[in-house]
Amino acid sequence: MITIPDNIDSKYRFVILSALRARQIQGGSQPKIKQPSHKPTQIAQKEILQGLIEFSIPEKAAPKEEKKEQ
């Protein structure tokens, strides 16, 4: 079982980040670790767990106030 790092707020975000990184690896991006496994998803997860992938989590936008018609 994988323990999610503290800088990732949920397991769902970890899955999304892993999938995005795996897609980059499949598209030709060089892995940042030497891994005997050739599965891009496992490589992406290990890169994220080791802190090798930089990412930012966007802030939630403030709710827009409804315009009242006068």
Largest sheet: none
Question: How confident is the prediction overall: mean pLDDT?
Answer: 86
How many alpha or pi helices?
Answer: 2
The gyration radius over C-alpha positions equals 17 Å
Quote the beta fraction. Answer: under 5%
Strand element count: 0
Silhouette: elongated
Which structural category do the helix and sheet elements fall into? Answer: mainly alpha
Order of helices and strands: HH
Spatial separation of the terminal alpha carbons: 58 Å
Percent helix range: 25-40%
Given as residue ranges, the uncertain stretches (5+ residues, pLDDT < 50) are: none
List the helices and strands and how they pair.
Elements lengths: L10 H16 L13 H10 L21
Structure characterization notes:
The chain is an all-alpha fold. The longest helix is centred in the N-terminal third of the chain and has 16 residues, at 11-26. It is built from 2 helices and no strands. The protein has a domain at 10-27 and 37-53. Helix 1 packs across helix 2 (40-49). The chain has helices spanning 11-26, 40-49. Helix content is 37%, strand content 0%.
Keywords, separated by commas or semicolons:
70 residues; 37% helix; mainly alpha; single chain; 2 helices
Quick description:
With 70 residues, the protein is mainly α. The protein has a domain of 35 residues.
